Amino acid sequence: KAGVTQTPRYLIKTRGQQVTLSCSPISGHRSVSWYQQTPGQGLQFLFEYFSETQRNKGNFPGRFSGRQFSNSRSEMNVSTLELGDSALYLCASSASNRGLWETQYFGPGTRLLVL
Amino acid sequence: AQSVTQPDIHITVSEGASLELRCNYSYGATPYLFWYVQSPGQGLQLLLKYFSGDTLVQGIKGFEAEFKRSQSSFNLRKPSVHWSDAAEYFCAVRAYGGATNKLIFGTGTLLAVQP
Fold it and tell me: Which chain B residues contact residue A35 at CB under 8 A?
């Protein structure tokens, strides 16, 4: 099976702009989670989607949002970008066929640089 | 609150030497524990996981980890390190409660391997 794919891999934006990142989970996986990784804060949970519904949310401002489509692909959006949003954004998928917790598999990430 | 502590920010070992990376967790029930590895510019790769049962868990690339409830630890070990093991290693615990795939990560241990 193909792994988790994320597009784009690299992105440069300026402050105030918005950005949309995409994640395609492993085929058959229904849960998608997003994490932000920065040198200062480490790996922090953003949100999780299961069957097109947000199941859990981390402590991030409302500028960070996401959604999941019927094919389990997910997007996250960051509006009004700030310099501090520069980070590696990681997507992880798991099967969760019964809505339960299962092992997560990570994609390569999207590196966002905000200037 | 649940948390994961990796006391060692940076470790250097010689190629062929043994390795132990420390991980301590704080959790109210039986934890689900993981070790992931991240190579520069890459996503996270799952090395091994512990859910229940045998406290000594075998993973990929010759790694193993031992769950010790009395010490709240889940240390990662490898008997003989290879230069390709140089990377950052993250310990994680599944967040408690409900149907969630949220992971709480430690701050990571950066492993350097000397020839």
Answer: 103
